[in-house]
Write a structure and sequence with these properties.
GLPGLI family protein; 14% helix; mainly beta; 278 residues; three-stranded mixed beta sheet; 13-stranded mixed beta sheet; single chain; outer membrane lipoprotein receptor (LolB), chain A
């Protein structure tokens, strides 16, 4: 399977991240690691940095199995599915035009371990690494309630990876696993928000399911440590042109006169604040 790209033309006046979404991947190489018991869908609004005015928005799917919890982007999966069919027919495929959170998270609560697959921009590859498991300490505010999506919710707060979060959970649905790496509440998380408003998850769909939970083998996977992945992602997000050039892609940027040329060697860094601050 070949993905293009020896030359990448970037229109600098347009949102750079929107032009640099990870290339779609084929879904032919996989194995089943569990069976879903519940499937929960969340909208996920997030910002790449605190001064960003508008939110990016992803749709996350949480598959809750007996031993595995998988969290992935429904939008990325959609474009991967299209690509898989197009590749079989020898056709080109559309890139994902959305800014998503390009990370799959596999949590194994019985073993207290976690594994992540983070897609880098365009065809730069996929970082695969074990990540730290951390039990969450929740503080409950039993006298504070709110009705969300017809569920009566209670409030709880926690700290995780250098950030503070407020969760609204319902005892009507006794599922203790929520989006991202949040778990341990006595009911389903309906909404959870980071204290500065940079990250907001809201549940919009819940179903009983018995579908397989798959882990996919992607092209250009790179095994690394969590610390190494964080450094690579930071470099990619702050200096994407330099990052792509170092990955072997020739990058062209539109100049003021409308022509395309090589980016400046001293690329000005773009603001970026990771979701985990540790």
């Amino acid at each position: 399977m070949k993905y293009l790209l020896s030359v990448i033309a970037i229109l600098w006046g347009i949102n750079v991240y929107a032009q640099l979404s990870p290339a779609p991947q084929g879904l032919d190489n996989y194995k089943c690691i569990d069976t879903t018991r519940f499937e929960i869908h969340y909208s996920f609004k997030f910002k790449n940095h605190s001064s960003q005015k508008q939110y990016n928005e992803d749709r996350r799917v949480i598959q809750v199995g007996r031993s595995v919890i998988k969290d992935y982007s429904e939008i990325i999966y959609h474009y991967d599915s299209l690509a898989t069919e197009n590749f079989k027919k020898g056709l080109s495929t559309s890139n994902n035009p959305n800014i998503t959170y390009p990370c799959e998270i596999y949590s194994y609560p019985l073993e207290k371990r976690r594994h992540e697959k983070y897609r880098m921009i365009l065809n730069a590859g996929v970082l695969c690494y074990p990540s730290m498991w951390e039990d969450l300490n929740w503080t409950y505010s039993l006298d504070e309630t709110m009705v969300l999506y017809n569920y009566t919710c209670n409030k709880a707060t926690t700290k995780y990876a250098g950030r503070e979060y407020t969760a609204w959970y319902t005892l009507d649905v006794p599922i203790s696993y929520g989006p991202y790496k949040f778990f341990g509440l006595p009911g389903l998380i309906i909404k959870i928000e980071e204290s500065t408003g940079m990250y907001i998850w809201e549940m919009y769909s819940l179903s009983v399911s018995a579908t397989p939970i798959h882990i996919y083998q992607y092209e250009k996977e790179q095994k690394c440590t969590e610390e190494s992945a964080a450094r690579t992602i930071h470099r990619m997000m702050t200096t994407p042109m330099t990052f792509l050039s170092s990955a072997g892609s020739r990058v062209l940027v539109r100049q003021n006169d409308g022509s395309f040329g090589s980016p400046a060697k001293d690329e000005k860094g773009m603001p970026y604040e990771p979701i985990e601050l540790r």
